[in-house]
């Protein structure tokens, strides 16, 4: 039986955070949880050396920060 390594767990955790974010009623909670998931995906993408995963999620991080910080001020 093969065990799951830390990097795989990080990917699962990131996926879970993003999925959970979509059931939030509050848009701010959605954006915050999605932000955490995207940050985890950036770390995961770096760990597996997947540039498209890193770039796409850096974009998502930026969009979430923009709306959480500058649009809510």
Keywords:
single chain, 73 residues, mainly alpha, 3 helices, flat
Description of the structure:
The protein has one domain (6-70). The mean pLDDT is 94. The chain has three helices and no strands. The protein has helices at 6-21, 27-47, 51-70. 18% of the residues are buried. 78% of the residues lie in helices and 0% in strands. α1 (6-21) runs antiparallel to α2 and α2 (27-47) runs antiparallel to α3 (51-70). With 73 residues, the protein is mainly α. The chain is flat and about 45 Å long. The longest helix has 21 residues, at 27-47.
What integer is the average pLDDT? 94
What is the count of structural domains?
1
Q: Strand count, sense and closure of the main sheet? A: none
Based on CA inertia axes, which overall geometry fits?
A: flat
Radius of gyration from CA coordinates: 13 Å
Task: Summarize the amount of helix as a percent range.
Answer: over 70%
Write the layout of secondary structure elements.
Elements: H1 6-21, H2 27-47, H3 51-70
Helix pairs in contact: 1-2, 2-3
Brief summary:
The chain is mostly helical. The chain contains 3 helices and no strands.
């Amino acid at each position: 039986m093969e065990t799951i390594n830390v990097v795989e767990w990080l990917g699962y955790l990131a996926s879970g955070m993003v999925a959970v974010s979509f059931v939030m009623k509050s848009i701010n909670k959605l954006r915050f949880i999605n932000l955490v998931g995207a940050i985890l995906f950036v770390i995961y993408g770096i760990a597996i050396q997947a540039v498209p995963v890193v770039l796409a999620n850096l974009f998502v991080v930026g969009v979430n920060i923009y709306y959480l910080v500058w649009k809510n001020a």
